[in-house]
Amino acid sequence: MEISSRSDIAYQALRRAIIEQALAPGTKLREDEIGAHFGISRTLVRAALMRLSQEGLVEIKRKRTATVAIPSLDEAREIFEVRHCLEQQIVQRLTAHWRPEMGETLEAHVNEEEAAAQRGDTASASRLAGEFHIVLARLAGNALLARYLSEVVSRCSLILAVYGRPHVAECATAEHRNVIAALRARDAAASISIMNEHLHAVEARALPRPQEAEDVRISDILARYSTAG
Amino acid sequence: MEISSRSDIAYQALRRAIIEQALAPGTKLREDEIGAHFGISRTLVRAALMRLSQEGLVEIKRKRTATVAIPSLDEAREIFEVRHCLEQQIVQRLTAHWRPEMGETLEAHVNEEEAAAQRGDTASASRLAGEFHIVLARLAGNALLARYLSEVVSRCSLILAVYGRPHVAECATAEHRNVIAALRARDAAASISIMNEHLHAVEARALPRPQEAEDVRISDILARYSTAG
DNA sequence: ATCCTAAATCACGTATACATGAATGGGTCC
DNA sequence: GGACCCATTCATGTATACGTGATTTAGGAT
User: Fold this and answer.
1) What spatial distance separates the first Cα and last Cα of chain B, rounded to whole Å?
2) How high is the pLDDT of residue B3?
3) If DSSP codes are grouped into helix, strand and coil, which group holds residue B28?
4) How far is CA B39 from CA A16, A40, A143, B3, B13, in A?
5) How many structural domains comprise chain A?
6) Is the pLDDT confidence value at A226 over 90?
7) Which keywords, in A-to-Z order, does the entry hold (chains A, B) (predicted)?
8) How far is the C-alpha of B59 from the C-alpha of B74, rounded, in Å?
9) Residue pair A37/A49 in contact by the 8 Å Cβ criterion
10) CB pair distance less than 8 Å for A81 and B142
11) Tens of pLDDT along A2-40?
12) Distance of C1' in C4 from CA in B1, Å
């Protein structure tokens, strides 16, 4: 049976391309072009784009070509705040209903992250780093929590693409192993604290420090380019 | 300028009808029928239905007429859990950034709830009771948090429709006033505790007690009907 | 060279057509 | 009388057509 409509194929492909930063924020997503690529009509492309738009990965404005979303700094901070809140709940659930095989699953995933990082596949490494949190969410056993977290983690990739320093690989495997260790100990307080630490590290890699952000002015940037450029 | 496409009109109307329980869970939503009512084509109706489906208010299955969603008990519990988590964050933000005029806004809203309840307009009263929490979320100043909460609160109306006792008006105005009072005192711990209490009360009205749910068996129900029916 | 304007092109918004898979009703057989 | 099967009807899945607003390009004036 044909499980997924061809609209889903376009949706999945676009989503992944955006998350892996193959499609940079701001990139135009023309319906015709995408439809031609997948061999589907604009009708189905629009459905995929609308879905991505609801998830905050694509921006759709009336009568304008859709683009990969460019989250503002304010949105970025909002996203991270919600993420903190959701991940805390997830960790709480995990320590409450921990089962040893969860540790195996997580361990296996981190190994994949490490492998991707070691072979220099930064796109996959970033994606897998994000997916680690989605695996956590699924294991926590609340589908809605997992859906929201998945959405929020995807948008963090966008934030990293816009505000993160270039070439900063996620390099989070060590931190992920710490999280697993804390969960295995089933110590809720410690797990939450370690997760919070990790999330702050992720946020620090993705966002400029607050005072930096406020200091940056267009004239400063232009000044840099007028002396040496 | 024509701000909202006509698809939005259908979306808004359907959403409100579902939330006010004018459209009961399980009701069929035929594209032709809806399109004819609003004077739009199926294309636009589909867009509205897809959006509602992503919010969990409508169920869409391939090649089947869309229906108003019927949340399962498991989903219902998941929804309430996420709601707890989000509302806690909202209350935390509110006590941190409290401004006196927020109290006025909230007070005015509760007055509306009360007015609707007193004139016997239970549909509006329920909707306004839910919207109280959405107003809180907006005042908290995190748009994403507000969006998720709005989605979750809408789905609570569905849960109430499916599992709540009939004719149970929400009657939450007193509890809402307690929340406002706690926020005004800017005591985060007390506010969170009062909000948790309120949410548990809401949940108790919407869901059967856990042991009840497990005890209910089809044979029990049939037994009732074979003696007296 | 720059800016403004007008025409042409492009991309989206929406309706509609046609194909296909579900639902329904009538008729037949046991 | 009830259950099964086929034909019909209905509702959705998808492509396409056409109108309109956005965008780009070419040309001319300053």
Assistant:
1) 60
2) 45
3) strand
4) 37, 28, 37, 18, 13
5) 2
6) no
7) DNA-binding, Transcription, Transcription regulation
8) 16
9) no
10) yes
11) 445 899 999 999 999 999 999 999 999 999 999 999 999
12) 26
CA B227, CA B117: separation in Å to the nearest integer?
38
pLDDT higher than threshold 60 for residue B200: yes
Smallest Cα distance from B218 to chain A, Å: 27
d(CA A182, CA A175): 11
Tokens 């003696």, located at residue: B227
**Is the minimum CB–CB distance between A81 and chain B shorter than 8 Å?**
yes
| Terminal-to-terminal C-alpha distance of chain A | 59
**What type of residue is A117?**
A
What is the domain-level CATH number for residue A41?
A: 1.10.10.10
Whole domain around residue A27: which residue ranges? 3-68
Tell me whether residue B120 is in a domain.
Answer: yes
Examine residue B224 and state whether it is found in any structural domain, yes or no. Answer: no
Q: For A147-175, what is each residue's pLDDT tens digit?
A: 999 999 999 999 999 998 765 666 789 99
Taking contacts as CB-CB distances below 8 angstroms, the residues of chain B near A54 are: 51, 54
Please state the pTM of the whole predicted model. Answer: 0.91
Does pLDDT of A218 surpass 90?
A: no
Specify if B227 maps to a domain.
no
Among A142, A151, A159, A192, most B C-beta atoms within 10 A, so best to mutate, is A142
Residue B206 CA to residue B79 CA, distance in Å, equals 12
Nucleotide nearest to B29 (CA to C1'): D11
pLDDT value, residue A170: 65
Distance B131 CA to C5 C1' (A): 51
Q: What is the pLDDT of residue B212?
A: 55
Name all protein residues with C-beta less than 7 A from any atom of nucleic acid chain C: A 29-32, 42-43, 46, 60, 62-66; B 5-7, 39-44, 63-65
Average pLDDT over residues A55-69: 98
Is A221 among the domain residues? no
User: In the numeric block, which tokens belong to residue A40?
Assistant: 């589907």
Of A31, A147, A23, A152, whose CA–CA distance to A80 is shortest? A152
**Cross-chain CB nearest to B145 (options A47, A82, A142):** A82
Residue A120 falls in which region: left (phi positive, over 0), alpha (psi -120 to 50) or beta:
left
A16: which 2 tokens?
Answer: 């992944």
A85 touches chain B (CB under 8 A): yes
